[in-house]
Design a protein that fits this description.
2 domains; GIY-YIG endonuclease; elongated; about 35% helix; Excinuclease cho; 6 helices; alpha+beta; DNA damage; GIY-YIG_endonuc
Length: about 180
């Protein structure tokens, strides 16, 4: 599944995307408003991805990388020749989704975070809900709901939330 496929399937709202040579970063950063949110990808001279990051204030984050203040890229700054930006709508809740999608697609060597647990953490809230049923004392059931919103005790049908997460994980290329 490509980055674009995942962006479409999970309805991630990318409002602008562009690339630039790192040598031109000062000029580019002048044009980016301070409040822009997004994901950035650093590439080497052969256009191989080196690092993917995200930031609520992408302009400040990129400055910290290019000025050598970021521990993730400080030792590799001389190898970073290009940068691509994927800017999101302000206040977007998709920032971590998009970063994870891009890391999963490119598998850059400077990203040390294991991707599988990040996907599971992002997908679980999509499916994990509590049963809408109540017990004999009219208290909420509290068990995990199946697809129709109820646990098996209260007429729940369909798959369990962890089965739905596993299904999505397979779609994303994890076994």
């Amino acid at each position: 599944m490509s980055v674009l496929d995942v962006i479409n399937e999970f309805e991630i709202n990318v409002v602008e995307a562009f690339s630039f040579k790192v040598n031109d970063y000062r000029k580019i950063l002048e044009e980016i408003p301070w409040y822009k949110t997004g994901v950035y990808i650093f590439f080497d001279e052969n256009h191989q991805p080196l690092y993917v990051g995200k930031s609520e204030k992408i302009k400040d984050r990129l400055k910290s990388h290019f000025k050598g203040f970021s521990s993730e890229t400080k030792m590799h700054i001389d190898n970073i020749k290009y940068c691509s930006l994927l800017l999101l709508k302000r206040g977007s809740t998709s920032l971590e989704w998009l970063e994870t999608v891009v890391i999963n697609e490119y598998k850059p060597p400077l990203n040390t975070v294991r991707n599988k647990w990040r996907w599971e953490r992002l997908l679980t809230p999509k499916y994990k809900h509590r049963c809408k049923g109540t017990n004999s004392r009219n208290e909420n059931c509290g068990l995990s709901a199946l697809e129709n919103g109820f646990c098996k005790n209260h007429g729940g049908i369909g798959k369990k939330w962890n089965e739905l997460v596993e299904e999505d994980m397979r779609k994303l290329g994890f076994n």
